[in-house]
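Step 1: inspect the first sequence and its tokens.
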Amino acid sequence: MGLHVDQLLTVQHDVLDAEPGYLNVSAGDQVRILYIGSDDRQDEHGWVFGATAQCKGWLSVQNLKIESEDACEAIIAKRGALSKGAGYLCIRKGEPLIIKHEENEWLFGWSNEQQQQGWFPRLVLTKPAPPPEEEWEALQNKQKPQFDQLAASAAASTEALAGPESLPSWTVGRRAPKAPWNYAIMDNRRRCCVSRFRFGCHQSLLPMLDVVSS
């Protein structure tokens, strides 16, 4: 991995009693890269300008621990996260990430897909938790009256056509006012209309069906 602005690197060698404008650091300190020295300038080549928690200054690249992405094990994001702006990554679920630094609830890492690094919340490494049982029950109860209302409406419509549930399993329903030659055959157990036949044809079905006329 090459150097990048806003990259967070670890110091591997102590630098004490540095001149003004240069960083005094100890091994293990974290340095954020603010500027990378130009290769075209002899006085900047091989140097970076960075910041620690205490101060800013120049530091030799040789004093920084720079690891290759291939040497680090990638961790798969289990949920996505939106970017909060410059210096942050927008993470998608299933994206491989290489963690470089941890700070409370935030992680600083590298994304091979995006070919950049930045901050993202630690939550991307955990699966979303299911809703609490009481919230789940409340959601179901909120939806239940709607289905109950539909069921009651369907039952009322069936009662109006086929009569009470005490009727036999199969019933020839009442004639429609505008179509007196038609009868509706109702399945009382399944609560639905299964067929229609003309007036006068139901006499042959009497051994099997009860006829309910209006």
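Step 2: inspect the second sequence and its tokens, then contrast the two.
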Amino acid sequence: MRLLGKSADLDASAMVERVETERLAVHFSSRRMNRRAALVVAAVLALGATGLVGADLALFLAANLALALAGLVAAVRVAVGTLPYDRAVRHLRPPLPGGPNTTPPTPPPPPRG
């Protein structure tokens, strides 16, 4: 049933195309962000290797930068819709009762009498 006519169909297809284009742009920008994050972490590790910064401090900074930048990339992808929210936060939630790693509850004893 078409209530709005052909122009509405064109508007909807243009909107879908625009959303897909934006998702692709975010996907490639998140890849660039990942590449930049890797370069930043490598630079911090190189500072530790050269002795300009202590090795333990360089490892600490590199690990924290990697986690922060990965979280930023995931947040951007969730906001735009290229990463489903449930996949992004799956590891943050405790397992639900009755999940795959739980034992089934014991059945009640049979009634007497």
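Step 3: confirm your contrast with the notes below.
The mean pLDDT is 69. The longest helix spans residues 6-50.
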